[in-house]
Amino acid sequence: MKPVCQLLSLLFVFSSLRLDELEACSCALTHPQDAFCNSDIVIRAKVVGKKLLKDGPFGTMRYTVKQMKMYKGFNTVQHVQHVYTDASESLCGVKFDINKYQYLITGRVYDGKVYTGLCNFNERWERLSLAQKKGMNHRYQLGCNCRIKPCHYLPCFVTSKNECLWTDMLSHFGYPGYQSRHYACIQQKEGYCSWYRGMTSRDKTNMNTTDP
Asked: In a 3-state reduction of DSSP, which class is residue 15?
C-alpha cells in the first residue's frame, strides 16, 4: 500500500501546483483604446481551427483564423492566417471557440507571427459596443498620442493637456465601465485631449453586427 500512498501524495501535490498556477496570470485593466494603440495587429476574425504545438512546458496553441477585417497592422502582416497563444490559461493563454463567433483580436508580432494573450484585448465582436467598433475602425487611432490616466481612488487629476481621466474603476458597476464602452480619448485641434463619444444610434436592434 505504501507505493499507492506515495502516488496519491504526488498527485495531490501536482494538483495543488496546477491550482496555484491558475492564479499566475495577472493583467492590469486597460481601456480598449490603449489596447488598440499598443498592439501591432488588430483584426476581426473567425477562428476555424486549432493545433497544439509541443514547445515549452505547456505547449503553444496555434489558432487558424479567417480574417474578416484588419484595423491595424497593414505594414506588419499582410493577412493573418494563424494566431499563437500559450496553451495554458495560467500563463495567460487565450481560449477561442471554434467556428462559432467573430472575435476582435489584438496582439503583437514576433518573427512574422501574431501572438496574443489574456492581457491583450480579445472579445467576441457581438459583445462590443457601437462606440468600441467605431473606435477600432478609426477613432482610437486619432487618440494614440493621448494618455488615458486611470483613477482608482479620489481625488485624482490630469497633469498634462494630453491626458484623459479614466474613472471607470470608481464605479460600483465594475469593469468594463461606461468610458470603456462608449468613449474615446481624442486629441483636439488645440492640442489637448478629451473624451469623445460621437453620434449614437437610438435603435440599435436593426444595426448590422458586422459593421463598421
From this structure: helix
Q: Does residue 114 lie within any of the structural domains?
A: yes
Residue 174 lies in a domain: yes
Give residue 83's Cα distance to chain centre. Answer: 13
DSSP conformation letters of 88-100: -GGGT-----SSS
Alpha-carbon distance of 142 to 198, in angstroms, equals 13
On whether residue 164 sits in a domain, the answer given is yes
Provide the annotated binding site for Zn(2+). Answer: 25
| Residue span of the structural domain in which 164 resides | 130-196
Neighbouring CB atoms inside 10 A of 99's CB total: 9
Question: For each of the chain's 212 residues, which pLDDT tens digit applies?
Answer: 444 444 444 334 334 444 444 457 888 889 999 999 999 999 999 999 999 998 777 899 999 999 999 999 999 998 999 999 999 988 999 999 999 999 999 999 999 999 999 999 999 999 999 999 999 999 999 999 999 999 988 899 999 999 999 999 887 665 678 999 999 999 988 889 999 997 554 434 333 333 34
Q: Is 189 helix (H, G, I), strand (E, B) or coil?
A: coil
Distance between CA 185 and CA 38 in Å, rounded? 14
Q: 66 and 46: one domain? A: yes
Q: 103, 124, 145: which is the final residue of a domain?
A: 124
As annotated, the binding site includes: 25
The structure's pTM equals: 0.80
